Amino acid sequence: MADPRIIDIQLDQRTILWRNADVEQERRIAIFDLLEDNHFAPQRVHADGYAGPYKVLLRVEEGRLGIEINREDDTPLEAIILSLGRFRRPIREYFAICDSYYQAISNASPQQIETVDMARRGIHNDAAEVLKERLEGKIEVDFDTARRLFTLICVLHIKG
């Protein structure tokens, strides 16, 4: 019986050099929300018919995103490697707008905060669409899952 969802997700801690409290909070929320509701269906058919649930490890290595997919019992299922070239600009823009958002929270009017937050969501949504496109034919994800995965990809790019 198919159960196309992630039940556990980890970030390769060797990839993350530093993160502040705001980023740590974003990471916690993204993981919590992802585990509460996600659609994650690798497209490769396995001989034994395994179709979820999945445990996932995200890592960045030499400019590529590694998505290691394991079965519920932790046995390896497959690994997907994606070039991160198309994500460099959205990641950079997302970091910049997040910095603006955190600064706005402490000293801007509610309207200014809302404007910055709308821009932040727009960048995040666009990046989620790019991720869905890059995963096409490899892993089927819904929009909310792609958004949360993009947040975690950004966390992996923090270099202090």
Walk me through the structure.
This protein has 160 residues and is of the alpha+beta class. It has helices at 21-36, 88-107, 110-135, 143-156, and strands spanning 6-11, 40-42, 54-61, 64-70, 76-83, 139-141. It has one domain (6-156). A hairpin with a 2-residue loop joins β3 (54-61) and β4 (64-70).
The fraction of residues in strands falls at 15-25%
Which value, in Å, is the CA radius of gyration? 16 Å
Largest sheet: 4 strands, mixed
The percentage helix is: 40-55%
What is the CA–CA distance across the termini? 44 Å
Low-confidence stretches: none
Number of domains: 1
Spatial ordering of strands, largest sheet: 1-3-4-5
Shape: elongated
- Order of SSEs, N→C? EHEEEEHHEH
Counting DSSP E segments of at least 2 residues, the number of strands comes to: 6
Number of helices: 4
Q: Give the overall average pLDDT.
A: 87
Structural class: alpha+beta
